[in-house]
Amino acid sequence: MGDNAIGLIKALGFVAWADERIAPEEREMLTTVMDALAIPEARRHELCEAIRRAPPTLEEISALFTDDLERRFAVAQAVMLARVDGEVADSETRDIRRLAHALGIDDDELEMIEAAVEVTDDVLAGQGA
Predict the structure, then answer these.
(1) CA dist., res. 30 & res. 116, Å (int)
(2) How far is Cα of residue 27 from the mean position of the Cα atoms in its chain?
(3) pLDDT of amino acid 129
(4) What per-residue confidence (pLDDT) applies to 1?
(5) DSSP for residue 54
């Protein structure tokens, strides 16, 4: 488990706390991501407690990423996280933009990432119907 994986979890925690709460759907997504990354239980608990005490700073998050693709992936996952409960709060939109900028992603690229996430959500929703 590298720094990019920890950066992803912290980026998601940053956006999840944007509206000062973590919705059950956001919590479920965080768990799914930690499962996919094979983060050990003790480390999960440590990460969750740290996020609960104080959201990670943008500087802390950006320092963990070493790869541009991983940065883009983290922003896409953050967009998905904000949408997972069916309601994207203004504070989540603001913090996704702040996260993207901290990771070197400009507004044009962020719009492309958001559009890609929306298309993916639409395709997946169509499969469930």
Answers:
(1) 20
(2) 11
(3) 47
(4) 57
(5) S
The encoded tokens of residue 3 equal: 């720094």
Please report, for residues 6, 47, 75, 100, the alpha-carbon distance to residue 66 in angstroms, rounded to integers and kept in the order given. 12, 20, 14, 15
Return the beta strands (E) in 66-112 as ranges.
Answer: none
Q: What is the pLDDT of residue 128?
A: 55
State how far Cα 24 lies from the chain centre: 15
Q: What is the CATH number of domain 3-128?
A: 1.10.3680.10
DSSP assignment string, 16-34: HGGGTS--HHHHHHHHHHH
pTM, rounded to two decimals: 0.88
Residue 78: which of 105, 100, 53, 46 has the closest Cα? 100
**Residues of the chain falling short of pLDDT 50:** 129
Tokens, residue 126: 């169509």
Q: Identify the pLDDT of residue 8.
A: 94
Cα–Cα distance measured from residue 31 to residue 33, given in angstroms and rounded to the nearest whole number: 5
What span, in angstroms and rounded, lies between the C-alpha atoms of 59 and 82? Answer: 21
